[in-house]
């Protein structure tokens, strides 16, 4: 009788142990706690980084006072920008390497400009000649138009011929002055041609020498 009771007790206890094993060995679900607040939008985050936003004006007078303040601030910023641009323009016209265009930087380009500025040439009349051609086309007399066109054509041929000779001369002088620099004749000649074709007062940077000075 005791043996049977012990066996029955063990058989009854075995299912409970099995259930406990199944419960313990079962898969556990992961749980992510909620943040408690929605994800902020990008616009709101940028506004927080910039700082607090001023509250809206409560009266019309306050709104007008803010508008005058914003207008004065804009004028001040515009004045500062104009001052900076004016300073940059002055330094560029003076030949400061820091403010020059990349094509105008370097001792070689400065030497070419001095060679061009030290002489008077026909290429300096290129822009006035273009204006003369435009005015001649407005004249209704065909004889005036034909004579003006012929004269301008001859001037253009003379300018091109002078530009070629001047480019060859300047290239030779530059190579003698800077023997270790890689000098390309076409590049030097074109740079000198563009410089010489501009009106002297409009050249950038301003000429450092006068016509007739020795370089």
Determine the mean pLDDT.
78
Report the radius of gyration as a whole number of Å: 43 Å
Termini separation: 134 Å
Helicity range of the residues?
55-70%
As residue ranges, the low-confidence spans are 1-27
**Total of helices:** 7
Write down the overall geometry.
extended
* SSE sequence, one letter per element: HHHHHHH
Helix/strand/pairing category: mainly alpha
Beta strands, count = 0
Please describe the biggest sheet, giving its number of strands, its sense, and whether it closes into a barrel: none
User: How much strand?
Assistant: under 5%
Sequence-ordered SSE layout with sheet pairings:
Blueprint: H1 2-25, H2 42-50, H3 60-93, H4 107-117, H5 126-138, H6 142-177, H7 185-197
Helix pairs in contact: 4-7, 5-6, 6-7
Write up what this structure looks like.
By secondary structure, the chain is an all-alpha fold. Helices cover 65% and strands 0% of the residues. The protein contains seven helices and no strands. The chain has helices at residues 2-25, 42-50, 60-93, 107-117, 126-138, 142-177, 185-197. It starts with a helix and ends in an 18-residue tail after the last helix.
